[in-house]
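This section describes the prediction task in plain terms. A model, or a person checking by hand, is given the sequence of a single protein chain and must write out its three-dimensional structure as a string of tokens. No templates, partner chains or ligands are provided. The sample shown here is typical of the held-out split.
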Amino acid sequence: MLARAEALGLVAARVFTTQIGERFVARFSPNVMAAAGHGRRTPDWRGPVDPPVDVVVHFADAPMRLYQLEQWLPVLERLAERRSVCVLTRMISTFRRLDGGARVPVVYANGLHDLEAVLGELDPKVCIYVNNSFYNFQPLSWRRALHVHVNHGESDKVSMASNQAKAYDAVFVAGEAAEQRYRDNLIAFDGETVVRVGRPQLDFELPSPVAPSGRRTILYAPTWEGETHAMDYSSVRRYGPAIARALGSDERFRVVYKPHPRVATGTRAMAEAHRETVRALEAANRGCPESDWNRVDDGTEVLALFSGSDALVADVSSVALDWLYLRTDAPLWLCDPYGDRARLERASPAAAAADVLDGETLPRLADAIAAGLDNDARRAARDEARRFYFGDLAPGDSMARFLDAVDELATRRDQLLAERRGAVGLETRAGVA
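The expected answer:
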């Protein structure tokens, strides 16, 4: 029955029984393939998953966190040109969201036994992790691979220096600042696993959706409130509506409001401040020519908005640092939601290269931004900050570094496994030889 369904090319759900009696659910479709070792269907142009696979990218979380993986997908597509790659999801809702959207194969495994079955079939050389999900510790038990943490951005948030980094064979970081962040914040972290690869996501040219305007375009791209108080760097509750009113109603400017994907669904106070910010921009648009309208953008990749903007207002986040890399030539305003400049500069060295938006500067924000655009006094400081965070990388260098680093890990894994085989004299896919 199953063979006939596959022969007919039907999209189907299949339930397998593994040797340990658990169920492994694998769904095949024309666009996404799941491999289970019980026969497989050849997928379309995305390419088959022919075990063994060189690289598995583990993503265990729900669709609300898919932004953490999605920024890596173009990089993974480039990696797939030289090595076999697949994404391993752990939630069926996430798997379905990626169905038809990812240009690399995607597999699904729910429980721990399912995970073991998939890893046993794929036998990856390298496992990559894009966040600090506690579920990452399950595939870390797979002993035949080298495990690398890449995170989903480069920022000065406290979550970027987690003790979880100690669990990985390699930790890919953007540059000196990230390496120093780990050393300064973690106890007993020697840094030997750190590899500087830059930010390969920034090596893609994205067309701007922002049409030209007679007004200068200010991109306001705040972060969300985080899952703990220590990770709350968001300016939305404190400054969002005021920024929208101050800049959105000024004839010199046009505002593009691009909040973090989780701002609109955050706490009640955060969500209401977001709605008030949107309402302020909509009110400011009344009577303006459509070409000069303020806009709220909840669908465009934030990096695509950079080229059409003249200045950025942001929080401590990866957006601010990406701006330093891509738009070093344009002013950066960093929000201080706590009104404590010393605390802000301790949290983010980038603050020393940025203009700071706080309760004192907010009443004169429009004039201050206009003055900064006319006389950019912080350009040299931003150049220095860019070197601190990213080195002297040119376009394309980060991608090359990333691909070479993955290659080196895959080669090293094969060498280590061969050495272990020779020493022990046996090999099993249930563990290390």
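For orientation: The first strand starts at residue 12 and ends at 17.
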